Amino acid sequence: DTIVAAFGLQRPLSSTVEALKGQSALFLGDSITTGEKDSANIYEGGGWAGRIGYFCEMDVQSGNQIEEEDNKFDYVIMQGLYDYAKEKVDVDTFADDLELLLQKASESYPEATLGYIVNYKIEKTVDLAPYAEKAIAICEEQDIPYLDLYHDESFTVELDDGLNPSSAGYDSTYMRIATWMASLNGEGASDDAVTTK
User: Fold this and answer.
1) Longest C-alpha distance within the chain, in Å?
2) What is the gyration radius of the CA atoms in the chain, in angstroms?
3) In this structure, is the dihedral angle defined by the CA atoms of residues 86, 87, 92 and 97, taken in order, positive or negative?
4) What is the DSSP string of 12-43?
5) What is the DSSP string of 95-159?
6) How far are the Cα atoms of 5, 12, 97, 98 from residue 2, in angstroms, in the given order?
């Protein structure tokens, strides 16, 4: 806590902490989810997951695929668009893969609250719009809660390489993810109660 205070890192709202404290979460996604460019080493797991686990006193895991182990989680939060766009994969193929991921997550973790993070806009010269729109349509069709960072003009994140958040980027934005997670079960503050610095 002394280190955190020294760097002036923002903490989640107390209502968010109380809503998430003691629970477990699995974060699934690409390099953004796993914190590939996160150099901070005080958060186990790194990225958004590590910070949410640290500040909200949650048990978190982060990875890029659903494990076959019989793990129980209170939350399974998924994310990812960039790799499909970068490789110019057909949007329909992306849709099929996303539907399969959501189905597998639902079957593997039937008691978990599922959620999907729609990627923020990036500096790379890749058009994410068709993938973002397709992800939103699928989530709405399957009644999966989603956090739409792509269309959120208030969401800005410092990037390390034009794609992945830097450690400072994760520091300034993890609260947005935590607040949304807390709101999924009708607890914590509403999404608009937190502004991203």
Assistant:
1) 49
2) 16
3) negative
4) --HHHHHHHTT-EEEEE-SHHHHTTT----SS
5) HHHHHHHHHHHHHH-TTSEEEEEEPPP-SSS---HHHHHHHHHHHHHTT--EEE-SS-TT----B
6) 5, 17, 44, 41
- Size of the chain, expressed as the number of residues it contains: 197
DSSP 39-74: ---SSTT-HHHHHHHHHHT-EEEEESS--SS----S
Quote the percentage of the chain above a pLDDT of 90.
58
**Which residues sit opposite 59 in a β-bridge?**
24
User: Tokens 């609250």 belong to which residue?
Assistant: 113
Evaluate if residue 192 carries a pLDDT over 60: no
Nearest CA to 127 out of 94, 171, 176, 105 is that of: 94
Contacts of 160 (CB under 8 A, 6+ apart): 37, 166, 169
Closest CA to 147 of 110, 175, 169: 175
* Whether the model pTM is above 0.85: yes
Distance, in Å, from the CA atom of 152 to the CA atom of 26, rounded to the nearest integer, reads 24
Token pair for residue 149? 């960072």
- Per-residue pLDDT reduced to its tens digit, 133-164: 999 999 999 999 999 999 999 999 999 888 89
Amino acid letter at 87? E
